[in-house]
Give the backbone structure.
Amino acid sequence: VLENRELRDAMKPQKVEFHSLNLNSTLHWQPGRASEASDTVYFVQYKRYGQSTWQSKEECWGIHTHVCDLTYETSDIQEPYYGRVKAVSASVSSDWSLSCRFTPWRDTVIGPPAVTVVHSNKSLILKLQAPRSPYRRKRGSNKPMTNYYDLLYQVFIIHNLLDEQHRALVYEGRRKVIEIEDLRPGVSYCVVAKTYLPKLDRSSAYSSRQCTVV
């Protein structure tokens, strides 16, 4: 019995945690010390905080991988959730490993906006598009993250007289189309943008650089 208990402990999945980007939320874990064997399979359950019964995730029931997509199971994004995982190998089952509490609205990472740059006479016109969530409108397109958050855009300019570290903030606000005027002809300018969430005081990573010569 003792050997069996030790084996069960050694098989138990480690570091069970939610990873979430733009509300695409997946549960990740690492195999236990004794779960390197290729015949180990994993079983995933989830529940909303306050619920007494766990729900099994059918697509993640007896899987070999170490990740399970729970995006739609956690779609009530203001609610806290838990996930748990157990490992089974050669008819020996580990105990369940529990994740920390996960609240999608607070815990998801919001990505940068998509930026399109058009230049016209000594100015740049920027079009900003919020990242998309995985949840769809009735017409089928994915809802933008602005449906769920009060997002601001931060736009920075880098021109070739300055190095990469000197990003000048030229705009912060909600507008999707911005004009940056009075630029010097013949100078190459690069633009990057972030989304900023005032309520949580959090910024995204920078968007990829868009460069153009005015």
